[in-house]
């Protein structure tokens, strides 16, 4: 081994304060560690999937401060002070299953399911900011999520059903208020 290789010292891990699925956390991570690896390998949150690891497929998508990001490209230190929501958090917030997840189930929005957590994160991020998106806006929101199984028909139907259900829920809440 060359001397120059021997002299490389790994940078020390540092403590990153953040919120994960509504719970305050402190992640002790080295500077080069990706968020996806922290979630899956350190925290056993395996909902975000490891696939291309170069930002092409969206299987690893999570929300950071409400914005969908590829966790395979996000350095953990970039999440300092931020709020991270994974697919586990989406289910927990809904008390078991989110209406978007139910719509995917009912409309056949998945086959192998590997892309589905990332798809649902992207749909949730879209609908939380824009409850009544156009078809073009839906396509744009899902442009970073690749599905190799479904042909997208079931996914599009699921998104439309989720939009309808969310509207109905909003209207019935408004009537109650
Ligand atoms: S695994 Fe992150 S985009 Fe494919
Ligand atoms: S359901 Fe298999 S990749 Fe989308």
Outline:
The protein has 7 helices and 5 strands, in the order αββαβββααααα.
Protein described:
It is a single chain. This protein is an alpha+beta fold. It has a single domain, classed as Ubiquitin-like (UB roll) (Roll), CATH 3.10.20. 41% of the residues lie in helices and 14% in strands. The protein has 7 helices and 5 strands; from the N terminus they run αββαβββααααα. Helix 4 crosses helix 7. It is globular. The protein starts with a helix and ends with a helix. Bound molecules: FE2/S2 (inorganic) cluster (2 copies).
Count of β-strands: 5
The CATH homologous superfamily is termed Beta-grasp domain
Termini separation: 72 Å
Q: What Rg, in angstroms, do the CA atoms define? A: 18 Å
- What are the bound molecules? FE2/S2 (inorganic) cluster
Helices and strands in order, then pairings?
Layout: H1 3-6, E1 14-20, E2 23-29, H2 35-42, E3 61-64, E4 67-70, E5 83-85, H3 87-93, H4 99-106, H5 116-129, H6 135-141, H7 153-176
Parallel strand pairs: 1-5
Antiparallel strand pairs: 1-2, 3-4, 3-5
Helix pairs in contact: 4-7
One FE2/S2 (inorganic) cluster (FES) binds next to loops.
């Amino acid at each position: 081994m060359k001397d120059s290789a021997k002299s490389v010292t790994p940078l020390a891990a540092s403590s990153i304060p953040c919120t994960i699925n509504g719970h305050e956390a402190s992640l002790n991570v080295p500077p080069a560690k990706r968020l996806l690896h922290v979630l899956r390998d350190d925290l056993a949150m395996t909902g975000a999937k490891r696939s291309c690891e170069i930002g092409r497929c969206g299987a690893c998508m999570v929300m950071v401060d409400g914005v969908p990001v590829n966790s395979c490209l996000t350095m953990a230190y970039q999440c300092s002070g931020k709020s991270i929501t994974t697919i586990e958090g989406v289910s927990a917030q809904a008390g078991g299953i989110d209406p978007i997840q139910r719509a995917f189930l009912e409309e056949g929005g998945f086959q192998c399911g590997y892309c589905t957590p990332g798809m649902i994160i992207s749909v949730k991020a879209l609908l939380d900011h824009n409850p009544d998106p156009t078809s073009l806006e839906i396509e744009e929101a899902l442009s970073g999520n690749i599905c190799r199984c479904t042909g997208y028909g079931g996914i599009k139907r699921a998104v439309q059903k989720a939009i309808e259900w969310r509207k109905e829920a909003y209207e019935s809440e408004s009537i109650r208020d």
